[in-house]
Each structure stands twice: as C-alpha cells, then as structure tokens.
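This entry is set out below.
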Amino acid sequence: MEVNHKELKELYEQTFQDVSEGRIVVGTVVEVRNDYVTVDVGLKSEGLIPLSEFAGADGSVDVKPGDKVEVFIERREDDAGEIVLSKVKADRIRAWERISEAQRDEEGIVEGIVREKVKGGFMVDLGGGVRGFLPASHVDIRPLKDPVPYLGKKLKFKVLKANRRQNNVVLSHRVYLEREKEKRRQETLKKLKEGVILEGTVKHITDYGAFVDIGEVDGLLHISDMSWRRVRHPSEILEVGQKVKVKVLKYDPEKGKISLGMKQLEPDPWEKVPEKYPEGTRVKGRVVGIADYGIFVEVEKGVEGLIHITDMAWGRKIKHPSKYVSIGDWVEAVVLKVEPEKRKMALGLKQLEPNPWDTIEERYPPGTRIIGQVRSVTDFGIFIGIEEGIDGLVHISNISWSRRPKKPAEMFKKGQEVEAVVLKIDRENERISLGIKQLKPDPWLSVEQRYRVGQVVTGTVTSVTDFGAFVEVEEGVEGLLHISEMGSGTERIEKPQDLYRVGDEVTAMIIHLDARQRRMGLSTRALSQRGEYREEVKPITLGDLLKAT
C-alpha cells in the first residue's frame, strides 16, 4: 500500500495541535448541512459552525467534506457538552496578524478587494470582516480620474496605519506600485548595456521619435532608427501602448540617456544594393515622398531612390512632381547611379524611352517648316511645341522682318497655332531656334528694285513715338515719317500723336532709302512742297528701268 506523506503530515499536525480554548486550530469538514457545517478538530466530539460563516463576499458557499479549515475554539464544551467553534473569528484574527506583520515589515503587503467608494477614497475588504480605508491619493501613481475601474478589483497594499482596538486600517496601493516600479527599474539598469535587446512599451510619440518604457526606464527611439525605409512621422508605424522590441544603441549612465533602435534588429538592406541594382537596371517601386526637386521611390523595404525632376521627362518642363505622380503610385524607373556609402540611389523615368534629342537633327534639319501650338509667351519670344517634350524658341528678333514688337504677347496667345521654320539645333543643350519671318524672303533684299527716292507711297501707321511715326508700306517694309517731315507747310509739329494714330493710312514721299541699314525715310512735307499729290505711285519694275536706259 502506497503511503501518502502529505496526508500523514496533515493528520500529525491536526492530532498534536494545541486545542486549548482561545486558539486557532485546523479542522476537517465532516459534513455540510443546510444550516451548519460539522468540523472535526481532534477532540472527543465535533463542532458545529453556522453555514453562513463560510459564505464568500458574493454570498456563495464553497465548502465540502474533507476540506481543511482554520477555526477558533471558543469553548471546548458548552452547557450541552458540545464544542463551540468559529470560522469568522479565526479569519478575523488571521487578517489582523497579516496586517500587523505587513506594518512591521518594510516590504510587507496585504491583499484586499476594493468594495465601495466613500468620502475621500475607498473601503477595502481585507478578509475576516476587517475593512481598511484607501485614500483617493493613494490609489495609483497617477491622479485618480475615474473610480469605477477600481471597484471590485483585488489589489495589493502597503499598510500605512493600523489600530486593532479602534478597528482602523489605512492602506496605500500607490506606495506598493512605486516600490514595484523601482524594483523593475533597478532590474533593468542591471542588464542595461549597449547591444542588448529588450522589450518595451511605447509611452509617448513626438515628431522626432518615440519614448519607450523598457522596464520603468525610458529610452528615445529616434525616427531615423525606427525603420530602414523612410518614415515621415513615427505614428506611421507606432502607437502609444504598443509592445516593441528594441536594441540599446547607446547608454550614458551619468546623464541617464538611452538611445534605442528598431531597424538595427534587421539586416541593413543597403549592403546588397550594389549587387541587386547595378546601373541600368529597371526597377519598380512605390512613390513614398514628393519634394519640389523630385520624387522618392521605395524599391524595397528600406531602400529608396530619388527621381530628380530633370529625369522625369525628355524636354518637358515639369513645374512640380505632384502634378505627375501621387503618394502610393507604382512607377517603373531605371537605376542611374548607386552610392551605398551615402545610402543614395538616382533613378530616372525618362530613360525608359529613347532620348528624342538623339535624332532631332535627322527629323528636323534646319529649313524644316513646322506647325505647332504656342506653349508659352515671354518678353523675349515665344515657345512653340514641335512634338511631345520638345519646344522651339522664336526669338523676338525672328518674328518679323520689319517691326520688332515690344511684347510678343501683343501678337501671340498661348494655344495659338503658328507656323515657323527651323533655324538652328543645339542638341547638346537641347535647344531649337525657330523663325517666323524666315517663312518669307527678306523684302529688304529687293527693296531698291521696287522703291526709289522721290517715289510717293501709301502705307499704314504701325506705331507712333515722340519723334515720329512708323509706316508700313508693304509687309515687312516700314518707313519712318520723322516729326520734322510731318505736315504740309512751314508749321511746327509738337506731337506726332496729335496727327496720327496706329492704323491710319498715310501717303508720303520717299526721301531716303538704305537697304543695307533697312531704313526708309518718308515725308509728307516734301510731298506738299512738290505741289504734287498722287494716291499711289506704283513701284518701279525691272522693265521700267530698262526702258529708261
């Protein structure tokens, strides 16, 4: 037969325990009735204890035959010769013993259940009918905001004050929490050193990082040490209360500063970037950042490349990358340059397609006529779209053979369709010079064949200045009617604007002609003094000259 040593020990202790009156002994439950529980404490008879003394805080009774219970012997025999026992008195005595011991012992604690909210704090059930007072200021380390979560909760307390005669106990859960916190802090400091990996809880998040509690000690997890990939704000990957594993990067015991890292728990992806992404490699990635100068593309976790704005499209001027792509877009690009030591990768979008400037001279040799829309108008000329991504400039000097507009905007509007001729191509600097006036021959090359000094002509005023008026006698040929040559007599003209406006028709005599200098002088005064007036003299032809000779 196998011997049960535990049962033998309990039997021995129960058999030889002091069963004098006024002592607490261990008894065995023999029978549970509707109103009483029969308990054997080793005397000649058994004692009866009211069932209500076994009721828990919620009123339920959990006792059965064979259970061991502590009871208080009030009398070994009453008038009826029965033993008088009490479980309630035993529980109360034990409760006060625990309270007294916890009060004497610096590290001692008692457990109790927070039962009700009273003025200034809570009442705590310490067992055995003993109740203690928990001041509101001693409930938690932080100020108490809501009492409801504490009601019905079993907590541990430090005994601040205890008086059995006055049945007065004052408790503190805050002191217990502070001591436990300090114990954890000391344990953390013992194992704290650079390189150690710890688990912590995110306490606070800022723009530059997060503070992590690694055991009642806070360390700073800087935003740059959170992930190998770009993190715009710590809240993208962390939240308050989150459990995280971190590595101690630096620890300064004197200043109490601790630097933590998360990305250091994983291999640095940049170590293999030169092998995986040599120059010329096509890659696909997600747009994770947009700046004025370009876009950042994540080609893999922790590895980003920059597509500079100048590498987004051939020839096309992009005002801002955000008009081309959005955060989260997937793009394909070409690796242009890799600098692993600087953790930089240059990518290009336009390099996915052939450079149209490589064959521009073959497609648009000088002299080629093109028709395109005005892309933009500036003070120095207009830009005409030749094809997607390629514009040509018509300088203000190449707009007209005769007049040079002060502002090209007076003649052209954005979106207007214009014909021009290719004058020059600078492939290296990706520039094309266009001309509009070159669509027609320079009329000044043959002007002396059509006009002569003394000839009377009729033209239209194109502009009026303080010194005279410019008159267009034919397209591309203008003459100057100087203020001194205005009028019909000897009167003095003070302001040309008083006589002429743009668009007026004027008949005058040619008094000066210099084709090389592209100058023609006109005079209404000379025409009047000559006493002749013809509506218009036809230009002299080559046949007329031959007849005259």
Summary: The longest strand covers residues 154-163.
